[in-house]
Amino acid sequence: MRVFISLQGGRSNFQNDDGSFNLELWKQQEDRFRSVNLAPYIADGTILGNVLGDEFHDGSNWNGQPVPYSDIEAAAAYSKSIWPGMATGAGTNPIFLSGASFVWQALDFTITPYTVNRGEVNSFLNSQANAAVAEGLTYYSSINVINGGDGGGNVNATQLKEWGE
């Protein structure tokens, strides 16, 4: 089995009272696991990477503003300072990350769920994958099976099979 981990928990663990991102609170969440020896699981590939947070692009989750690129990169660098061999990633789309004015150094990957409202599956995946490659990031995709179908409902078996192929 291979897994992504997210050591920080939900966004409420690292938001200011106004809902904006707080890097210091984020670091405190990461620090709770500082003494855990993850090295064997990183080395054998069990842990694929640390997902630093979700939906950094969506300002509605962060007091009306996306999380600053510099904070995402700083969080990635902080994680790597504790676990140098562990890949770091963001649960956001590569097209958003392509807006940074710098080259990503500590961030390694992005993971983005597909939902039917994002348009035709291959067009969506290709545009995201191309943006990831341009940014030097690995791109992982998933399917939101609970809320990703027509009308925001569950994905049906036919959709799951077609999209997965």
Your description of this structure?
The chain has 165 residues and is an alpha/beta fold. The protein is 33% helix and 16% strand. It has helices spanning 23-31, 39-43, 69-82, 94-97, 121-135, 157-164, and strands at 3-5, 47-54, 88-91, 109-114, 138-143. It has a 5-stranded parallel beta sheet with strand order 1-2-3-4-5.
Tertiary shape: globular
**What is the percent of helical residues?**
25-40%
Q: How large, in whole angstroms, is the Cα Rg? A: 16 Å
Distance between the termini: 21 Å
SSE order, one letter for each helix or strand: EHHEHEHEHEH
Helix and strand content put the structural class at alpha/beta
List the helices and strands and how they pair.
Blueprint: E1 3-5, H1 23-31, H2 39-43, E2 47-54, H3 69-82, E3 88-91, H4 94-97, E4 109-114, H5 121-135, E5 138-143, H6 157-164
